[in-house]
């Protein structure tokens, strides 16, 4: 008897998922709202919420109010597909996400199937290289990022020994490979090429290896947590290590975790939108709401602005019209002017080298 | 000696309060470091925040919860006693027969529901897709059931064979252009081969030594997939894996020159749902074939040998059975089924990466087998449905999702230590039920 | 040579930590024959308790390091043992006497539950503390390479050795140790002879948790950064260590831990760091093939 009820409940439950109301225009964000990288998801959510509020205050898009759906994939590819299907069911017209490349790649297939426009900040080249017509990237790519980072290392640390390290994630390895390539092209061969396991704690062996090889610059592809641990352990072992990383180093947790050693971290990121004069009012607004518009906050804001402008330009919310408008237009957002190439990548994806200094990051002088 | 003996007399109010007070006190101690105190980041340094209000609320909730739980348990026990005093107790055999019948009926209902599901939800991606996930786990569960439930070998690295299947299809199709149907048997055979390769040296290990080695094997496969970039794409995985076609008809909006699409051939309007529903029926058929295959095997000598081995290995050896070969066959068949599931997984996702084949995945599959009731085919279905749906339901609870999932695993185990459908009976018996039993046996 | 010595020190530190956690696995396995998958998460809980305690001390301006360390140790051991006790009481005791796999699944569920409880109550962000013990000794200063042992590494190795000695003494010499061993051999017989089996099992869990608590404090001191995910990887490695040494054997757990620490550190030092885990598990498989019950395990006697 009990078993029957259970099964009935399960079937009913499946039924409960059907039927989504479509009163407003629904747009969505997706990313790691829980799990290890939850702070990035948090930034995206804050940025998008603010943007939606602003757009709705201006009267919405084409006279319709925007409604925001938030999907949590915890950076797990399988959950990402499940989130994507939920979102399709909710009838979204536009998706800003996902965050991890390994989530965006499988999820974007689902959106492509269901004719939903995607604007992502995932940096792995594969995101747009697969030729999906609906995927656009409002951030640079790892190969461009690696080029800038590797070039900087080759120019500035010519006479020092450099190790290239990655964390074996799709993002980290892609970035590290590109950095190594860019360095070698400019004539600086990496002295060491290593991989670590993300989530591990003990890097003393790696650091001894650095010391043995005389390495004091590390080009790192991966997330900020590992960098913090490596820096701390290097310092304890008496090694002054300079780190060059990618866009994930924008996370302020790095400073909390690494302490003063964080001042040795350089990284590449798009030009700071907070310095964009057009963005000043929005930045003010975020600060007034006690949200520091760091990292992905303004990107999420810009992604929503992008949708507003694309839909207005297309004068429609149909997928085909939106896609056409997206390819044709030039859009003014808080992160600067956006125009897309044939693959869906940005035409001018600038990357700049930053340095952490006393808890703030700024352009390297 | 280790079972808890309940007090025979009803508990007095004071006793109940004391009991609940004691539990609340334990809750308080456990709560202080995690709930009562927390550290927050203040300007780059940690500072301690206190949340004694929340702690007090939690302790009060624990107190009330314990009172209710105790009361509920007492009520349940009294009712049980009353029932057993009133009615003539049915014999264990009869009850087992009754349960067996319910399960069979339930199986048919579930099958009917599974076949009908896409008809009712033909425009709902989410339901069809979630149901597909359930069926993948059902199939994995049935595969692992051969190893754990029937042969009694604890395998903590089952995901390795799932990965072998998925990667062999992904590589065969993207590198050599094999179709789904060509790659399916080859990938299954490859997975079985890996099963034998692994099984041969380690199957003489016993119990938990076997478990840790299989766990290690699962990790080794994953680490190799992550690092051997030229072969497996490394952490990037393999993307753009071709989808299976319907007898050569693709599920695409438009077909290349000289070919036809599924929608075009049948004169339907194109809809992405066609492919999802096709995939759903595909895994349903694969799962049913698995079920038929395993049920058949259980009645063959090799299946009986597995069950005999599970019950008593020494007796088996004394009877002159070749235990190594029997274990190997179970391992290989389980691996092959996992490989099939992997092929389907790769074809359905279109993208695979090592992240999908972690130890957590092995643990979930094992949990499905054990929660379902080891060796019970229907139990696997029930448990797979539960374990996929709990986190999906939980999406409404956002961050409490996995917490509930973990708690549910513990609670189900305590409630039904043998699994949800837990009667453990040999598939074939030597006429233990008298004439009627034998007739039933023959009729099956 | 200097480089090898440095890696030896790193490996020993890592191994000592694995060993401490592995003892918890081995004792529980010895007495009730189950793999306590939640043990790694108990260790994680203790690391969080240590972070809170250190932060409290910093707020109270306690600067004496020995005082701070002993306070944190006591606090962590107390609360973590309570967790060990509660986990056994709620998730495992009701399942005693059922199938072998039931407690295993319950343990996996408990591990997920603990991880998410900590994530919910303490946040998903990493928790750093300022360095507690800074500096160390330069053992050998060659022109190319200076071999260093930090104070925290020394602390870990010394603590582990002390605890090992104390534990061996307790298990072999004290009444509790005798009860514990008698329960390992035959629970029914022990109960008939007046040993309180439930109490002994509870105490075993608490002791295992206490050792994990020490390891948690050490990790917090050594690495300075803690998050809710640390229990998982360390737990698997420590469990591997316990099996490698022969599960159920205390010196075996310690030996296994040290071996795995050394394998990891030397493999990463001289070969390919990315295949470190393959090496660890590969060596485990090899050892088990040659000695099916681990390095120091008693061969199982089959009785019919």
Question: Based on DSSP secondary structure assignment, what is the total number of beta strands of chain C?
Answer: 4
Proportion of strand residues of chain A: 15-25%
Largest interface: B-C, 66 and 79 residues
| SSE string of chain C | HHHHEEEHHHHEHHH
The largest beta-sheet of chain C arranges its strands as 1-4
Question: What order do the SSEs of chain A take from the amino end to the carboxyl end, as H and E?
Answer: HEHEHEHEHEHEHEHEHEHEHHHEEEE
**Overall pLDDT score of chain A:** 81
Shape of chain A: elongated
State the distance separating the first and last CA atoms of chain A. Answer: 73 Å
Helix amount of chain A, in percent? 40-55%
Oligomeric state of shown chains = heterotrimer
The unreliable regions of chain C are: none
Helix % of chain C is over 70%
Got a strand count of chain A? 14
Give an overview of the whole structure:
The complex is a heterotrimer of chains A (365), B (444) and C (304). Chain A has 13 helices and 14 strands. Chain A has a 7-stranded mixed beta sheet, with helices on both faces. A 5-stranded parallel beta sheet of chain A has the order 2-1-3-4-5, sandwiched between helices. In chain A, strands 11-12 form a two-stranded antiparallel ribbon. The termini of chain A are far apart. Chain A is α/β, with parallel strands linked by helices. In chain A, helix 2 (38-57) crosses helix 12 (297-314) and helix 12 packs across helix 13 (319-328). Chain B has 444 residues and is mostly helical. In chain B, strands 1-2 form a two-stranded antiparallel ribbon. Chain B has a two-stranded antiparallel sheet with strand order 3-4. Chain B is globular and about 85 Å long. In chain C, helix 1 packs antiparallel against helix 8 (197-223), helix 1 crosses helix 9 and helix 3 (65-92) crosses helix 8 (197-223). The model of chain C has no long low-confidence stretch (mean pLDDT 83). Chain C is 73% helix and 5% strand. Chain C is built from 11 helices and 4 strands. Chain C is globular and about 65 Å long. The chains are: A alpha/beta (365), B mainly alpha (444), C mainly alpha (304). Chains B and C meet through helix 1, strand 1, strand 2, helix 7 and helix 12 of B and helix 2, helix 3, helix 4, strand 1 and helix 7 of C.
């Amino acid at each position: 008897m009990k078993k029957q009820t259970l099964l009935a409940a399960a079937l009913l439950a499946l039924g409960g998922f059907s039927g989504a109301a479509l009163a407003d225009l629904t747009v969505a964000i997706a990313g790691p709202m829980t799990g290890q990288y939850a702070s990035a998801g948090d930034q995206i959510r804050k940025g998008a919420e603010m943007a939606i509020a602003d757009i709705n205050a201006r009267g919405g898009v084409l006279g319709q109010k925007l409604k925001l759906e938030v999907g949590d994939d915890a950076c797990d590819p399988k959950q990402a597909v499940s989130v994507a299907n939920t979102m399709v069911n909710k009838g979204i017209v536009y998706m800003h996400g996902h965050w991890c490349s390994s989530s965006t790649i499988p999820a974007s297939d689902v959106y492509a199937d269901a004719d939903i426009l995607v604007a992502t900040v995932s940096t792995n080249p594969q995101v747009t290289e697969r030729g999906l017509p609906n995927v656009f990237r409002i951030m640079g790519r790892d190969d461009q990022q690696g080029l800038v980072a590797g070039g900087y290392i080759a120019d500035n640390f010519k006479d020092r020994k450099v190790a290239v390290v990655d964390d074996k994630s799709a993002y980290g390895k892609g970035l590290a490979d590109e950095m190594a390539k860019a360095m070698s092209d400019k004539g600086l061969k990496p002295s060491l090429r290593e991989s670590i396991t993300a989530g591990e704690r003990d890097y003393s062996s790696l650091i001894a290896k650095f010391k043995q090889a005389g390495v004091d610059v590390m080009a790192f592809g991966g997330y900020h947590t590992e960098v913090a641990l490596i820096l701390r352990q290097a310092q304890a072992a008496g090694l002054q290590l300079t780190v060059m990383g990618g866009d994930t180093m924008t996370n302020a947790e790095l400073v909390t975790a690494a302490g003063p050693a964080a001042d040795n971290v350089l990284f590449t990121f798009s030009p700071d939108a907070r310095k964009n004069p057009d963005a000043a009012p929005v930045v003010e607004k975020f600060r007034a709401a006690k949200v520091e518009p760091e990292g992905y906050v303004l990107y999420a804001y810009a992604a929503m602005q992008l949708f507003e402008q694309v839909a207005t330009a297309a004068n429609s919310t149909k997928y085909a019209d939106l896609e056409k408008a997206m390819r044709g237009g030039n859009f003014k957002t808080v992160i600067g002017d956006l125009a897309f190439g044939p693959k869906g990548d940005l035409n001018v994806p600038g990357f700049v080298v930053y340095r952490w200094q006393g808890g703030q990051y700024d352009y390297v002088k | 000696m280790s079972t808890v003996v309940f007090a025979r007399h009803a508990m007095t109010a004071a006793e109940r309060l004391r009991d609940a007070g004691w539990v609340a006190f334990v809750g308080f101690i456990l709560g202080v470091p995690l709930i009562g105190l927390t550290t927050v980041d203040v300007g780059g340094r940690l500072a301690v925040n206190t949340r004694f209000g929340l702690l007090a609320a939690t302790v009060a909730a624990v107190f009330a919860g314990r009172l209710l739980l105790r009361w509920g348990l007492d009520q349940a026990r009294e009712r049980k006693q009353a029932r057993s005093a009133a009615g003539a107790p049915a014999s264990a055999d009869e009850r087992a027969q009754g349960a067996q019948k319910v399960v069979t009926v339930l199986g048919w209902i579930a099958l009917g529901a599974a076949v009908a599901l896409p008809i009712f939800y033909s425009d709902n991606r989410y339901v069809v897709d979630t149901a597909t996930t359930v069926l993948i786990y059902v199939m994995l569960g049935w595969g692992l059931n051969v190893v754990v439930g029937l042969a009694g070998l604890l395998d903590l690295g089952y995901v390795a064979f799932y990965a072998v299947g998925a990667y062999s299809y992904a590589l065969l199709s993207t590198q050599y252009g094999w179709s789904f149907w060509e790659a399916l048997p080859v990938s299954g055979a490859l997975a079985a081969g890996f099963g034998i390769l692994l099984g041969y040296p380690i199957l003489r290990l016993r119990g938990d030594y076997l478990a840790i080695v299989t766990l290690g094997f699962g990790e080794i496969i994953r680490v190799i997939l992550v690092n051997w970039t030229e072969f497996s794409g490394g952490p990037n995985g393999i993307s753009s894996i071709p989808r299976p076609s319907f007898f050569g008809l693709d599920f695409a909006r438009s077909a290349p020159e000289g070919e036809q699409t599924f929608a075009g051939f049948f004169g339907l309007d194109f809809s992405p749902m066609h492919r999802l529903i096709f995939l759903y029926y595909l895994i349903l058929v694969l799962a049913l074939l698995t079920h038929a295959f395993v049920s058949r095997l259980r009645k063959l000598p090799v299946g009986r040998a597995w069950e005999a081995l599970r019950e008593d290995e020494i007796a088996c050896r004394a009877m002159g059975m070749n235990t190594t070969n029997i274990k190997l066959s179970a391992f290989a068949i389980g691996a092959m089924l996992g490989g099939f599931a992997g092929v389907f997984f790769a074809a359905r996702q279109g993208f695979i990466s090592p992240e999908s084949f972690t130890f957590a995945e092995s643990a979930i599959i094992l949990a499905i087998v054990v929660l379902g009731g080891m060796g019970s085919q229907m139990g696997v279905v029930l448990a797979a449905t539960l374990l996929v749906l709990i986190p999906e339901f939980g999406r409404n609870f956002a961050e409490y999702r996995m917490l509930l999932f973990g708690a549910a695993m513990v609670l189900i185990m305590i409630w039904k230590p043998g699994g949800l459908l837990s009667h453990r009976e040999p598939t074939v018996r030597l006429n233990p039920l008298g004439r009627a039993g034998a007739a039933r046996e023959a009729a099956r | 040579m200097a480089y090898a010595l440095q890696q030896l020190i790193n490996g020993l530190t890592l191994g000592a930590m694995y060993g401490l956690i592995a003892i918890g696995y081995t004792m529980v396995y010895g007495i009730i024959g189950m793999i306590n998958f939640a043990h790694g998460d108990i260790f994680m809980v203790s690391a969080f308790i240590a972070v809170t305690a250190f932060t409290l001390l910093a707020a109270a301006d306690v600067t004496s390091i020995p005082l701070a360390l002993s306070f944190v140790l006591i606090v962590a051991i107390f609360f973590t043992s309570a967790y060990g006790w509660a986990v056994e009481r709620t998730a495992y005791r009701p399942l005693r006497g059922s199938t072998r796999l039931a407690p295993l699944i319950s343990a996996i569920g408990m591990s997920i539950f603990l991880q998410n409880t900590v994530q919910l109550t303490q946040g998903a962000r990493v928790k750093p503390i300022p360095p507690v013990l800074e500096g160390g000794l330069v053992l050998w200063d060659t022109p190319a390479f200076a071999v260093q042992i930090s104070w925290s590494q020394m602390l870990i190795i010394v603590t582990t050795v002390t605890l090992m000695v104390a534990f061996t003494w307790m298990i072999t010499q004290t009444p509790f140790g005798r009860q514990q061993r008698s329960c390992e051999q035959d629970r029914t017989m022990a109960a008939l002879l007046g040993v309180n089996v439930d109490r002994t099992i509870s105490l075993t869990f608490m002791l295992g948790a206490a050792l994990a608590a020490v390891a948690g404090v050490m990790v917090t001191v050594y690495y300075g950064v803690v998050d809710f995910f640390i229990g998982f990887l360390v737990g698997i490695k420590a469990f591997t260590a316990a099996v490698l040494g022969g599960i159920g054997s205390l010196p075996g757990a310690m030996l296994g831990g040290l071996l795995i620490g050394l394998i990891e550190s030397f493999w990463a030092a001289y070969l390919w760091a990315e295949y470190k885990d393959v090496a660890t598990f590969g060596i485990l498989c090899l050892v088990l093939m040659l000695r099916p019950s681990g390095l120091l395990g008693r061969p199982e006697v089959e009785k019919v």
